[in-house]
């Protein structure tokens, strides 16, 4: 299965970290580059990696490691997010991954219409590390937590991140922003495709 890597960018409403001067251009963010990678694994899981490169990590608030488990409102701090839906269907699923090791999975019938009865059947595995000016989070989502679709189904994917600065300001990053204000739920922003794992046909 192919591995896809793509860059995220901050929403245009982001307040510059350092305004432009006569001698230097504006610095938009402490984050130099935010890359996201995704692929389907042979065991049916979906794997997502978010990586901050060439970044001033000391200017960011990164939640400290804690006991892994589900938690709400992770998006109020630095958090990496995946949105996933079947093409042509209004429903979708939202995954939140915190550097702390906490996670959340939400199911929606339509845009922001949450299915309150949904409970995840399995927990993602999250790994977070940082070194120098780089930090990365890997989240492995087991097949039981993905939408129930046949092998080989193409899922529409939106990748996003909330980045918290030391001063408490939040930056909103995504592959594509489609609204005047940050809105990760906008279906038009699910611009990537991930095909669920299907066993190769050795006869071909």
UniProtKB/TrEMBL annotation:
Disordered, as annotated region: 1-23
Under the heading CDD domains, the entry gives:
DOMON_murB_like
Name of the protein: DOMON-like domain-containing protein
